[in-house]
Amino acid sequence: MELLDAHLVPAVDGVAYGLLLFVVAAGLSLAFGTAGVLNLSHGMLYAIGAYTGAELSDGTWGGLVIGLAAGTAAAALAGAGLSAATVPLARRGHLAQALLTFGIALVGGDLLIQFFGADELPVRVPGALDSSVHLLGHRYPAYRLCFIAMAVVLAAFGTWVLTRTRVGAAVRASADDPQMLAATGHNPRAVHTGVLAAAGALAGAAGVLGAPIIGPGPGTSENVLMLSLVVVVLGGLRSLWATLFAAVAVGEVQTLGVSLLPDLAPYLLFAAMAAVLVFRSRFAEPAAHEEQGPSSDPLARLRRLLAARLQNRSRTVAAPARETADAAPGRFGAWLRGNGWRQAVPLLVLLALLFALPGMLDPYSISLAGSALALGLLAVSVTVLTGYAGLPTLGQTAPFAVGAYATANLADAGWTMGPVQIVLSALAAAVFSALTGPAVIRARGTTVLMITLAVGELTSAVINQVKSVTGGADGLVGFPATQALWGGEGMTEESELYVYALVVAVVAVALTLLVLRSPAGKLLTGTRGAEARMRASGHPVGRYLLVAHICAGALAGVGGSLMVTVQQYLSPADVGFEIAAFALLAVVIGGATSVIGGLLGAGLIVFTRDWVASSWPGHGPLLLGMLFIAAVYLLPRGLAGLRTAIGRPAPDGTPPAVATPAPSPAGKVSP
Predict the structure, then answer these.
(1) How does it sit in the membrane (predicted)?
(2) I need a surface site. Which of 167, 250, 526, 535 has the fewest CB within 10 A?
């Protein structure tokens, strides 16, 4: 009883906090489970309601009602606009939607700060609710108890609408069978717009009513979005009551868990999210790699297996003759007569331009170029996973962070030799990826995005907690400079650091291209394009994907090491969720299968984020958001796609990007 009495107030706070997350997550679940939109701007919709409600609150019931109506309407209108924005991306999968909505979140967040200011706004509630009541011998805010009651009523009302009304039937039909819905005379596009408007209205109403609990301010939208994603993953997409219970559990962990288990609380949420996703990908969902329907007949699969084995044997017999022909002295001449030299010329010109940059730019711009190379290697690792292995990732900053912190700690311990730092950081990141890989490689599609997001957020939690290694929120600074070669001095000049980063990046990219264009790279590409056939012919697809995950992690670790060397400091913001989104954007800009395009995309992002934004202070997120939106719409296949569209090979010789298959019905996808 003493324990219950001591933690009663935090426990009730957890219920209130969880019910607030439920109202937000219900809208996110509705948008994703029914409309099929992975909306990473949902936290911004909450912020619209919170800012509007706070601005109109005056301590009266009228102010609360007006603020609730205005905030809900504004967020609903934004949700309807989001529907129009995502319709052109319907057949491009959830990755394009995620990047678009993240860009919209950056733009919307910047506009909200410009309009309402960067400080947290005070919220005034009616006097009757701005008081305390006695609860089992404790005083507790009346407003929070009132909010608990409203959230429970909302859960009951929402469940009734979805299960007992014609509107709910149309919504469920739009998720399960849009063609049948259209045959009954309903417009699926109108239902889609109405669902996203309703999701926005829920987020806006939560923002208005939750402003006294989670006030509007910088970082509010990101925090609400992350916690809502956890709730949706834990609760699923099919039941509002399951979402309600998951939200209350998350709220309790955020409040009661901090007081009972302060050391474990930061890890519990995303660890639970990752565990649920891995369980579903292994047991609950049909395996993505197995063919369904009539083609899964055992006899048919046996015939395909025998045919594939015979084909492989014939290729093995013919291989020595081909190798003998390829080894002939005329091979180099054939390369000259062909298009090989034409593919190499742009790369050589680009390389010469990069080496000439120190003589053309000021020290600040040179340092930005070095940072772009580090971020470029991260983007290349994302290209390997997303474009070649078919594993879209939002958590590649985790091995990037491992490499970065490994280099910083090595330098602090006196290990300042650059090649040693690179090798050990790559090894540490590879070991990390080997440990997390089994949880990733069995999932597909959106589930991969969510699992890798959970891994990235868990890594961020560790970074903030293990201060003896990472410096916590303050980061690391003041460690010795890196030596490029044995016996040399530490590099401190921007031009020296840039040339070192460029040499390392060139070697890393060259090795990556050699591997991707080797037979091993062809196997990886085949795994992405025809996984079921690869498995039927006896290929260990899981092993291929695990090796790709480990190698991509090592490459990201090299990028993290370079970033520390170039910047000479390290903070959690350098390895956070935004950097993961930037790496994905770089891949979209360059092209899903273009390694050089990923590097160019990273350079464009750093140029926009730091150099252009420096001439317009305070609007960096706005510029980046516009870059996200423009890249998703204007470069569906990236820069490499522009070249292949006119019949020319990409700068690195990569093949044309493979069109992304249409996503499965939204109601069938469970993150």
Answers:
(1) Multi-pass membrane protein
(2) 167
Give the end of a domain, one of 234, 262, 290. 262
- Res. 317: pLDDT tops 50: no
User: Is 253 in the same domain as 108?
Assistant: yes
Count of other CB atoms within 10 angstroms of residue 321: 9
Q: Give every CB contact of residue 266 below 8 A, 6+ residues apart in sequence.
A: 461, 464, 465
Q: Which residues contact 570 (CB under 8 A, 6 or more apart)?
A: 404, 405, 408, 471, 475, 476, 477, 563, 564
* Residue 77: other Cβ atoms inside 10 A: 15
- Note the pLDDT of residue 667: 38
- Residue 388 sits in the same domain as residue 514: yes
For residue 638, give the CATH number of its domain.
1.10.3470
User: What pTM was computed for the model?
Assistant: 0.80
Q: Which domain holds residue 76?
A: 2-262
Query: In this structure, are 507 and 614 located in the same domain?
Result: yes
Best CA proximity match to 84, nearest among 99, 100, 66: 100
3-state secondary structure of 592: coil
Same domain, 567 and 445: yes
Task: Assess whether pLDDT exceeds 80 at residue 617.
Answer: no
**What residues pair up with 570 in beta bridges, in sequence order?**
476
User: pLDDT tens across 323-374, in order?
Assistant: 444 444 454 455 445 555 556 677 788 888 888 888 888 888 899 999 999 9
Q: Which of 239, 262, 285 is the last residue of a domain?
A: 262
Bigger pLDDT: 620 vs 125: 125
- Alpha carbon 215 to chain centroid, angstroms: 25
